[in-house]
């Protein structure tokens, strides 16, 4: 059975190579969509989140920013400066929660900051998510350096809004873990999902704290919920989905204008069950649940940095200025919901940007979990 599954995968790879070399048989993607630009913000801002009052929020240095549905920007001074944020999320109690350095910061809408340090030995904190019951979840990595390489222990940590943290070590040898967990999201049923790119895994912690990791063939970097009980993931060379049963599907796109599709910044689920993400060369891209892929914003300055769902189903993208290259403005970009995807005839579509052919059929990984941990030990 294993040999047969391997033969299927090799056959699919061969079909993909032929498809990429052959003529186009699908319709071209629409031209990249022109967004609404909102208030240039100095050199740019960090992560964004939909939060209190139905507004979009961010924190940057010594200020808290609020962007209303009409694009009006309001800034509030913070009582204490925050560092370079790894993530920001809206708590159910009406506060914002941000991660930076070795702490979690609670930020009120009036700008008051309260700091919660990580447990000893937990190292640096990563992105943050809020579960339906109000529990905060975030990743952490305690790294060491050996010559030119870094390695270390990785954790997922839960925290109640009043304080007190539980730490869940991730399986895998610290000596083989050369990068931290890269993304974390909470699903509507209370499952918390995270990426573990050091071992090519997507992990899940259920509300009863059972931890399971699923192996994927791509190098998973960022996640977004799929609107049901699973997640989308984006990695080098493509993207995929994992459902609540652990079934993995992957869309391997290969090279795209000479760069592998991947994202170090973020992804978000749109209001139509679609996925928006920042791909190679900071392109803004969108894929529908059926596998229709389109380029929403091509490469160019200013570079796309972070992406979030905004009021009314809009998609917001923050950008980064580059004064060395003469790019001094870093506006926020707002995309209206309901953008069309590509219409695809079987398996091939030509994307106008770069005239690259992409294989758009989903490859199912035999409906099985490739690696599953046992019930996770009690939190540390």
Describe this protein with a few key phrases:
380 residues; mainly beta; Methylamine Dehydrogenase, Chain H; 4-stranded antiparallel β-sheet; 33 strands; 5% helix; disordered C terminus
Could you characterize the architecture of this molecule?
By secondary structure, the protein is mainly beta. It has one domain: YVTN repeat-like/Quinoprotein amine dehydrogenase (Methylamine Dehydrogenase, Chain H, 7 Propeller), CATH 2.130.10. The protein is 5% helix and 42% strand. It has 1 helix and 33 strands. It has one helix spanning 2-21; strands at residues 36-38, 49-50, 56-60, 63-67, 73-77, 87-90, 96-100, 103-107, 113-117, 124-130, 136-146, 149-159, 165-169, 184-186, 192-196, 201-205, 211-215, 219-225, 231-236, 238-242, 248-252, 255-256, 259-260, 267-269, 275-278, 284-287, 293-297, 303-309, 315-320, 332-335, 348-351, 356-359, 363-364. A 5-stranded antiparallel beta sheet has the order 18-19-20-21-33, with no helix packed on it. The protein has a 4-stranded antiparallel beta sheet with strand order 1-30-29-28, with no helix packed on it. The chain has a 4-stranded antiparallel beta sheet with strand order 2-3-4-5, with no helix packed on it. The radius of gyration is 21 Å and the shape is globular. Mean pLDDT is 79; it is low at 1-30 and 340-379.
């Amino acid at each position: 059975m294993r040999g047969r599954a391997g033969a299927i995968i090799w056959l699919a790879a061969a079909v993909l190579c032929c498809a990429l070399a052959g003529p186009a048989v699908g319709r071209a993607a629409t031209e990249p969509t022109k967004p609404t630009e909102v208030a240039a913000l100095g050199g740019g801002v960090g992560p964004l989140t939909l939060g209190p009052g139905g507004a979009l929020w961010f924190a940057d240095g010594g200020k808290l920013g609020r962007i209303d549905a009409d694009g009006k920007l309001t800034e509030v001074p913070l009582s204490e400066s925050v560092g370079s944020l790894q993530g920001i999320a809206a708590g159910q109690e009406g506060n914002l929660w941000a991660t930076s350095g070795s702490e979690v910061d609670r930020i009120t809408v009036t700008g008051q900051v309260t700091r919660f340090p990580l447990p000893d030995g937990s190292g640096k904190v990563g992105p943050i998510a809020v579960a339906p019951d109000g529990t905060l979840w975030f990743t952490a990595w305690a790294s060491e350096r050996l010559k030119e390489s870094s390695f270390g222990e990785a954790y997922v940590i839960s925290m109640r809004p009043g304080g007190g943290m539980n730490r869940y070590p991730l399986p895998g040898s610290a000596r083989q873990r050369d990068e931290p967990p890269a993304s974390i999201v909470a699903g509507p049923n209370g499952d918390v999902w995270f990426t573990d790119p050091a071992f090519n895994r997507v992990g899940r912690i259920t509300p009863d704290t059972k931890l399971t990791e699923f192996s994927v063939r791509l190098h998973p970097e960022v996640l977004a919920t799929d609107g049901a009980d699973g997640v989308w993931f984006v990695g080098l060379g493509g993207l995929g989905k994992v459902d609540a049963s652990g079934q993995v599907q992957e869309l391997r796109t290969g090279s795209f204008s000479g760069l592998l599709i991947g994202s170090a910044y973020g992804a978000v689920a749109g209001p139509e069950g679609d996925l928006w993400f920042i791909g190679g060369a900071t392109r803004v891209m969108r894929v529908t649940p059926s596998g229709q892929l389109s380029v929403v914003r091509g490469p160019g300055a200013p570079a796309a940095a972070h992406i979030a769902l905004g009021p009314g189903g809009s998609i917001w993208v923050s950008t980064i200025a580059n004064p060395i290259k003469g790019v001094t403005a870093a506006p926020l970009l707002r995309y209206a919901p309901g953008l069309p995807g590509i219409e695809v005839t079987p398996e091939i579509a030509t994307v106008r940007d770069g005239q690259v052919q992409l294989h758009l059929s989903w490859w199912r990984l035999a409906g099985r979990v490739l690696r599953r941990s046992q019930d996770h030990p009690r939190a540390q």
